């Protein structure tokens, strides 16, 4: 199970390599230790049980100090492990290195890879989880074998070895027969007992009697006699390990299970009632709990972690969040000073934005500041300023922290500047915090070491491990008489060998160098400085005077430095200097926020790698006032004008026609905060028409684009309010370019009424017709039943646009389209709304009319084979049904258990396409009712015969119309129609396989009587006929 953990040489030496290999250097160095100052252990995939045991041994000070006393002269050196003649004890050496790493290396997690390699484990052992109780015994045995011949050969024996004695006392002669057993851990039962003390009482106090048919043969009496069997503890170890039998076997079910019931174990207890000797000092019987290995999960898998008591007080304990929440009720809600102090004390960063403080107060008290405190104390900002002895405002008054706490703006994030110095400050030696842990009277606190994570816990958290899926699995006690020396308290380097301390110092130096290099590389940014003298204002944005001139200076800067440090680069600028964040947009360079606070860092100011900063006087560039901010970000628009030639005013030379399209195209930039009227004033006279290119809904699927004239009200709206973006096209039309007789304003229905449309002159219409694509149609369009009265519109649409989409462009689904015939009268409607205009045979020049009212649905009565006078019953469905040719709608009834009756029928839709056999029907019904197919029995009802035909082993033959034909095992042909009644019995709760009901039995009797009467009548008729012929019967 545990690889080659036992397979070392007979003398306890190993010459095998560790097999770790050379590991590549990570780009990011490992983080330093947190506030708790403990180091976790990485999980290699399934080694949580090993991690829990290693942490327990580490926080057994006497064990690790005894291990540290073994020097290289006894254990050898890991550097010589590849030499055949060298005697290197790999396992204790790797344990020494791992313990020193966990104690002293400034790293949050350590790896057990080298240790497991020394065990001879492969990837299978590292990825598979094993039992921690068995690992404890195997590891101790391996250590004893490895330390043979050294001063530490008795290490395990001295610390963990105990002895118990089993005695059988003869009730006749008093002879005592005893057998002594050694133990490194006690295995106690969990099943049937309430706790540890009751289990020990049953083991070492209660006697087992041999009497009746179960007598004992006494060696002195030489006969079967009554006797009593008992056990006692003869020798108590300094450290008592107790393994709980949480896993048992259920012989009735033939399966393993985990005992999750309540099992109480004390923090301290006296073993005197369980010992053979009772004349020792009382301190020899007293034990205290210092480690609890916890198993979470079931008997076939789970997770291990450990609760450990910090005996040497080398960690930094802080009250858990759950304990702080419990203490919230003790805060006086009427005192705002107490409430705000409590909020800031619970913050991990000890610093909160003033704007967020009010929200946090309302979350805690349920009442906002304005309603509860403002009348008496003023605003929350004023209250903070009136108590400078308690609160400290930082970051220009935007954040608040407690005066006694060290303020921190924010916790370092993956993109925030990090500092090795600030990280190392968290590991400085401070007095362990005891606030909130009222039960730690001896100054020792409890911690939860869960692989890489280490958190503080309380004694109440230990009590939660008495029962449940997550419960205690191994208990570790130590004698209370074992006191630690004063020099060991708070000193993790106590008794660590000098050569290991030197190795740790070198490792910490390498980590510090890597972190410093990472800090410098991750916080160095390149900033592009744009100097104002090299720029001018054009087209709504800033542009360089000359592309050949070097107008951009790239500097490398530490983003943790302040804006003031960047401003000190006076060689770049003379006079007033303003630094403004800039960004290149399609229109040019635009300015946003100006950096005014010289005390904040570049990171806090929003300067990142590749940012652009504009260096200027803050007012104007080349004599032009420049507006900054997101609201003035320029929009680059495409302005189109009809060419003179297309409007009939040119000489045919095509001057101004850039691409032969009949339109002159130019790019213009305008501030996003400028109004549309300002844009029109800049482009042409106020009398001009400004049109926006618009895409019809569904343009990508056969729609079309057109032009919309901006109404007068839009002239007061800004470009940002109109949602104009870079690249949008605007069409500018001068009044003299239009035929005034053809300018009309259409106020039509629904969507058409909501926008003012203008119809352009025939010259311009012919211009638009020239740009039709091969897949577009030019149509005339009107609304209403009197097309001669309503003004016709000229539209351009895609020929792939469907009739239904064409209606939705204007009025929606409550209208339909009709075509005007050659007599200019409204003709037949376009009935197929899903057909495209091309499929509806709509061509260029056709006139379409929108008529109010929906078309009636199509019903094909011919397919139903209905003749004259046929009666049709129509049922209104609650929801739309879409039955396919392979779907069968059956009525299914479930049998009432123990009765000859059925529950009301339910409609069941069977999709016979997947599996049309009986197995498919069984599977479908089983899935519908949450049963298995084997637990069902089906039958088809034959109402004319009042009988039921069981359904079994059906094979589909063919489908005719609305029914399917099947063959059962007897070869009878059966048919399933829609609405056929299928009855079902659940064999799990109803063993009666008879489907007949009382009504069926009555019906069968009636049919039997009718058949008998029919036979009687036939006999009498036959007799009458024979008598008429003169024959005797």
UniProtKB/TrEMBL annotation:
Pfam families: UBL_USP40, UCH. Residues 1-30, 407-440 are annotated as: Disordered. GO terms for molecular function: cysteine-type deubiquitinase activity. Residues 419-429 have a biased composition (Low complexity). Residues 39-480 form the USP domain. GO terms for cellular component: cytosol; nucleus. Residues 1-11, 430-440 have a biased composition (Acidic residues). Coiled coil: none annotated. GO terms for biological process: protein deubiquitination. SUPFAM superfamilies: Cysteine proteinases. It comes from the Eukaryota. This is Ubiquitin specific peptidase 40.
């Amino acid at each position: 199970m545990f690889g080659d953990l036992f397979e070392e040489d007979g003398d306890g030496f190993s010459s095998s390599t560790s097999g770790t290999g050379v590991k590549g250097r990570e780009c990011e160095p490992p983080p330093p230790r947190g506030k708790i100052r403990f180091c976790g252990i990485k999980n290699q995939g399934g080694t949580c049980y090993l991690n829990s045991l290693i942490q327990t041994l580490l926080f057994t000070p006497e064990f690790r100090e005894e291990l540290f006393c073994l020097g290289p002269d006894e254990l050898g050196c890991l550097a010589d492990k590849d030499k055949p003649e060298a005697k290197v004890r790999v396992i204790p050496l790797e344990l020494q290195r791992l313990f020193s790493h966990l104690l002293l290396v400034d790293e949050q997690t350590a790896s057990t890879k080298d240790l497991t390699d020394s065990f001879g484990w492969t990837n299978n052992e590292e990825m598979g989880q094993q039992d921690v109780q068995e690992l404890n015994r195997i590891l101790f045995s391996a250590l004893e074998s490895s330390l043979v011949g050294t001063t530490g050969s008795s290490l395990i024996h001295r610390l963990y070895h105990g002895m118990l004695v089993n005695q059988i006392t003869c009730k006749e002669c008093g002879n005592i027969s005893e057998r002594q057993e050694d133990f490194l851990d006690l295995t106690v039962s969990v099943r049937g007992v309430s706790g540890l003390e009751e289990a020990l009482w049953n083991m070492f106090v209660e006697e087992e009697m041999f009497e009746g048919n179960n007598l004992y043969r006494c060696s002195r009496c030489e006969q079967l006699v009554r006797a009593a069997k008992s056990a006692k503890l003869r020798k108590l170890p300094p450290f008592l390990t107790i393994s709980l039998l949480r896993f048992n076997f259920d012989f009735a079910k033939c399966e393993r299970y985990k005992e999750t019931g309540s099992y109480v174990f004390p923090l301290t207890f006296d073993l005197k009632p369980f010992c053979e000797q009772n004349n020792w000092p009382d301190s020899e019987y007293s034990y205290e709990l210092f480690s609890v290995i916890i198993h979470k999960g079931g008997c076939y898998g789970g997770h291990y972690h450990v609760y450990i008591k910090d005996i040497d007080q080398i960690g930094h304990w802080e009250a858990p969040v759950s304990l702080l929440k419990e203490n919230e009720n003790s805060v006086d809600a009427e005192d705002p000073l107490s409430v705000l102090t409590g909020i800031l004390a619970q913050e991990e960063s000890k610093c909160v934005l003033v704007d967020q403080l009010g929200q946090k107060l309302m979350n805690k008290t349920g009442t906002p500041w304005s309603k509860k405190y403002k009348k008496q104390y003023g605003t929350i900002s004023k209250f903070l300023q009136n108590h400078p002895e308690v609160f400290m405002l930082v970051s220009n008054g935007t954040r608040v922290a407690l005066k006694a706490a060290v303020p921190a703006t924010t916790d370092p994030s993956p993109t925030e500047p990090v500092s090795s110095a600030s990280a190392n400050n968290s590991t400085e030696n401070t007095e362990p915090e005891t606030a909130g842990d009222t039960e730690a009277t001896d100054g020792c606190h409890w911690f939860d070491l869960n692989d890489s994570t280490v958190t503080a816990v309380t004694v109440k958290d230990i009590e939660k491990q008495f029962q449940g899926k997550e419960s205690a699995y191994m208990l570790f006690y130590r004698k209370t008489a074992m006191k630690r020396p004063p020099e060991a308290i708070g000193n993790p380097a106590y008794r660590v060998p000098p050569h290991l301390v030197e190795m740790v110092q070198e490792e910490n130096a390498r980590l510090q160098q890597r972190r410093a290099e990472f800090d410098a590389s991750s916080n160095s940014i390149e900033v592009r400085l744009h100097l104002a003298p090299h720029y001018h204002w054009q087209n709504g944005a800033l542009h360089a005077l000359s592309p050949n001139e070097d107008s951009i200076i790239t500097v490398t800067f530490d983003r943790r430095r302040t804006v003031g440090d960047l401003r000190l680069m006076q060689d770049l600028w003379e006079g007033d200097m303003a630094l403004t964040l800039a960004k290149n947009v399609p229109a040019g360079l635009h300015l946003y926020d100006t950096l005014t606070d010289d005390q904040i860092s570049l990171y806090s100011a929003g300067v990142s790698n590749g940012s652009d900063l504009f260096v200027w006087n803050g007012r104007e560039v080349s004599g032009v006032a420049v507006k900054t901010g997101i609201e003035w970000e320029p929009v680059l628009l495409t302005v189109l004008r009809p060419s003179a030639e297309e409007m009939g005013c040119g000489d045919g030379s095509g001057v101004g026609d850039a691409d032969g399209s009949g339109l002159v195209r130019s790019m213009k930039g305008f501030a996003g905060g400028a109004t549309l009227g300002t844009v029109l004033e800049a482009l042409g006279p106020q009398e001009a028409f400004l049109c926006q290119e618009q895409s019809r809904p569904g343009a990508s699927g056969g729609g079309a684009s057109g032009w919309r004239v901006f109404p007068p009200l839009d002239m007061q709206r800004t470009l940002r309010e109109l949602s104009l973006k870079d690249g949008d096209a605007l069409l500018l039309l001068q009044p003299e370019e239009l035929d005034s007789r053809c300018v009309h304003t259409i106020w039509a229905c629904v969507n058409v009424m909501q926008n003012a449309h203008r119809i352009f002159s025939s010259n311009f219409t012919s211009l638009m017709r020239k740009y039709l694509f091969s897949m577009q149609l030019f149509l005339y369009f009107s609304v209403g039943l009197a097309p001669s009265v309503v003004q016709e519109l000229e539209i351009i649409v895609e020929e792939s646009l469907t009739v239904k989409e064409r209606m939705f462009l204007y009025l929606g689904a409550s209208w339909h389209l009709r075509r005007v015939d050659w007599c200019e009268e409204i003709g037949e409607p376009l009935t197929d709304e899903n057909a495209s205009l091309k499929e509806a045979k709509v061509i260029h020049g056709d006139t379409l009319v929108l008529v109010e009212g929906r078309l009636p649905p199509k019903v094909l009565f011919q397919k139903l084979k209905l003749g004259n006078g046929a009666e049709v019953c129509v049922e209104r469905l609650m929801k739309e049904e879409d039955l396919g040719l392979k779907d069968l709608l059956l009525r299914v009834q479930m049998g009432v258990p123990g009765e000859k009756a059925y529950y009301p029928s339910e409609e069941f839709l069977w999709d016979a396409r997947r599996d049309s056999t009986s197995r498919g029907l069984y599977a479908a019904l089983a899935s519908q009712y949450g049963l298995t197919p084997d637990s069902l029995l089906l039958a088809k009802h034959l109402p004319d015969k009042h009988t039921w035909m069981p359904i079994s082993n059906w094979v589909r033959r063919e489908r005719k119309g609305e029914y399917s034909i099947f063959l059962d095992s007897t070869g009878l042909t059966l048919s399933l129609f829609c609405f056929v009644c299928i009855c079902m019995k659940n064999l799990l709760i109803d063993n009666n396989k008879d489907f007949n009901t009382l009504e069926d039995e009555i019906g069968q009797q009636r049919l039997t009587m009718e058949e008998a009467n029919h036979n009687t009548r036939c006999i009498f008729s036959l007799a009458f006929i024979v008598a008429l012929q003169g024959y005797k019967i």
